[in-house]
Amino acid sequence: MFQFNPIGLLALIAFVMCLSLxxxxxxxxxxxxxxxxxxLLLVVEGVTLISTxxxxxxxxxxxxxxxxxxxxxxxEEMVHTLGDCAMLALYPPFxxxxxxxxxxxxxxxxxxxxxxxxxxxxxxxxxxxxxLEFGAALLYLLMVLLFIYALVASIHAWHISDxxxxxxxxxxxxxxxxxxxxxxxxYGAAIWMIWSGAYAVVEPDASGAPYIFxxxxxxxxxxxxxxxxxxxxxxxxxLRIRWTVKQSTLAATIVTIIxxxxxxxxxxxxxxxxxxxxxxxxxxxxxxxxxxxxxAERVAAATMPHTKNTEEYVTFRKMQVYEAAVAEALQEExxxxxxxxxxxxxxxxxxxxxxxxxxxxxxxxxSPGDTG
Length: 372
Description:
Blueprint: H1 6-28, H2 34-50, H3 61-64, H4 69-98, H5 110-129, H6 135-160, H7 163-196, H8 209-231, H9 237-268, H10 271-287, H11 289-303, H12 311-329, H13 337-350, H14 354-366
């Protein structure tokens, strides 16, 4: 009745990751904040992904032969199309709020957001009441253009910005960029299949590249989004990651040495020599422990450059975290009383002086890049 499908499993994991991260971000964000917009986008992305037909990959021939199965396919198509149209309506305004660049500034205006919503509703009905070559092809073309635009806007915002704005734009370019490239390819392939006559709404046994890249785009993007958000909230997240990379590299190197020596001696010499090889490997590890630690440190440094456990770096990161929080509070109509209390609490927990906090807020308030 049910069957295993590795591609479907990838999509299912990506879907669960989207919803899990969305819940965490929503609970940590305030009403109207950028965090809550990200959480809404993650829900839409997860639902759009899983309704593409990945669930059907787990269904056996018995279920797909049921008379009710076509109804399920129609529901999937409606949900997936709704997700696509919601992405068109929500993603540009999110970019307008998240990235301070002339490329995204128009989408920060309420009239433009209303127009996008109205156009998305019209497009949704056009998909079902016009020929596939018009409605669906137009939707997928707009999706491709949207993802290309988002990638260009993120890179442009990162290039022209500095401070917390630059860090945030870099995080978005890294996290959403991979997803945008993968999804652009998928929707571009869908357009080609529509015009070539090879398009199918759901392919339960599909294992082609579009299905793989569609799931992989979200699967890779969600951890990067989580890191980008945590980087603006935890001043020592990079130090923690660097320590984890160093310890993991050291552990992996030690395990590899022991495995190669013991298994090699056991297979090519004898079982008794294999046991002695384990003792030799342990002695070698103890003798060369310092060089191995140095190797792990170099790997960690290459993986997380410009990250050092020094007082200057920790102070710099604390200022970055506070700057990001102030920038977030200034997104809408200034800093409310509740947001001010949260900023004071954050300032005290980070050990930032009132003078430094006021300087950061003044700089963000009068910065030309943050107006519009």
